[in-house]
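Incident log, structure service

09:12 report received: a user says their structure output differs between two submissions of the same chain.
09:20 pulled the input from the user's history:
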Amino acid sequence: MVTLKTKLVFGGFMAMVLCCLMYSCASDDGGLPDPVTTENDTNDDPVDDGPSIIGFLACDGGQAGSYPCNGIDLMSQIPLEIFTALRGNDSWGWVDPTTGREYALMGLNNGTAFVDITSPSNPVYLGKLPSATSSSNWRDIKTYNNHAFIVAEAEGHGMQVFDLTRLRDVTTAPETFTADAVLGEFGSAHNIVINEDSGYAYIVGASSFEGGPLFVNIQDPINPVVEGGYADGNYTHDAQVVTYNGPDTEHLGKEIFIGSNEDQIVIVDITDKANPIALASSEYSNVGYTHQGWFTEDQRYFLLGDELDEIQIGNRSRTIVFDFSDLDAPVVHTTYLGPTFAIDHNGYVQNNDFYLANYTAGMRLIDISDIAATNLTEVAFFDTYPDNDDTSFNGVWSVYPYLPSGNVIVSDITGGLFIVARQ
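09:34 re-ran on a clean worker, output below:
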């Protein structure tokens, strides 16, 4: 029998293994310098006259400039040097409800960059919110009610809150911003998840609740309130939280947490924050590291990425598709294997499209319209890392496909911010 203590030790060990594989023990970091850890460091890599923003490049004959592609154009690229940063990580987007302007939010090792991409081929770097404490290769951003909420794996960082409407008033770009609020009831955290329907943020991968989700009421964004959490005996690496509207009528209208917990998925009813109810856990074959997943639009299927199976098992990029018709008894529906051996990272569903951050293989676009019949088909891609498609931690970290314009935000660990669009 696996005891709680054993599971926690395993979780911590796997987190260290993943960190080691990504940035310490391997020689696949592209020769990048070690991350900077100076307190309040905001100027790791000064801008010089070399790097510049790249504008529109059509995907023609399988290439957009130096980038391999199929059916996706490059609208623009902003190198990390423009942001005075060494590494990129997460990304998200925001649309100003008053002006309709579109913005990219990109996580950096030393802060968060804000870019006006309303004219996608002429992006405007508006400024950066520096890290609350030290630099970190892991930073995560989500939005709610016109505010950005940011966590990082930096000691004492907590959750930064930034009023995005301030971006309307930038007159001398780029500016150095300050946070509008900081929630300091936890320090380091790996990720943040927000259910915009309920107005709750969920901090995961922190030291509280054994790495499980910390419940934070953000209905008043600059006055966040912790309302408990859930410890299920395992570290949560990432999650999705929804107000459920899927086929399982027993749970309609409930707030459901789906945690990617290193070696399994967990499904928890968190409607009552004082009394979370575990519904199910689900494992699958050849587990490497249960990393991140996302519901289909009808909330029947859940597409899961395993971050270490390509390394440990040697398979091609793998997405495990679960059937969540019964939240109390999820089952594996099918498995999709991509065309390369690149590692899969964050993936998001928009209508019948699955946008996958596939590290060295770039962003892959997969048609899931026939997912019920187990048919998933790649229809387009844009490779931000043209050097190779190796099984290594380089290239695309995350994608954001939810802008009204159809433009897609892509964050690359060493290449910076890319804005791309389907042809």
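09:41 both user submissions now match this output. Likely a transient worker issue. Closing.
09:42 reviewer note: The first helix runs from residue 4 to 24. Confidence is low (pLDDT under 50) at residues 1-13, 23-43.
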